[in-house]
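Sample intake sheet
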Amino acid sequence: MSIRPVTERCARRAFTVRDAWTWLKRGNRRWAAGTPGRAGQDVERRRQVARAQAPFAVVLSCVDSRVPPEVVFDAGLGDLLVVRTAAHTLDSLVRAAVQYGPHALGAPLVLVLGHQRCGAVTAAATALRERATLPGELPAVVAALAGAYESSGGDVAAMTRAHTAATVRELRDDPLLRGRATVLGAHYCLDTGLVSRVV
């Protein structure tokens, strides 16, 4: 059964973190089962959100081409504010983009989404293990993942989850997000299409 986007079903003031997480889980289950509703992706919805937006969640995720949050959560236009970086790493510009959702748009949920077999995490783990320097700006990604590498013993799967948890902790400590949004962490399985809560 297709579920209409929450932004069409709920008044913004009544919309809670629990509503947002429930909607994301239901959308993900539809996607994983191969029965996406694709609600809110039509001309009518485009017109509804053309003049203003009120996303119910911010999703900070990886740039990986296999993990588009709008698809993974079967979301419609205007439902999610998506911020993507290699291995969902943070810097000041990324943090500002995340802050924008709760601060300016009232989004009650920030979801940090890691994923299985992350290429950025794998590359960083290899560089750290071999003490190699990656080209261009990629060393910044390696540096951002060094703590997760140390705490996980270099195992890519454990490193991905550790980095997700660390990013959640960092955003929970953000003064501009504290009291405005709840920050959760989740993990996407490429094999099954399912998202599971990590922290």
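Comment: The first strand starts at residue 57 and ends at 62. The longest helix spans residues 17-33.
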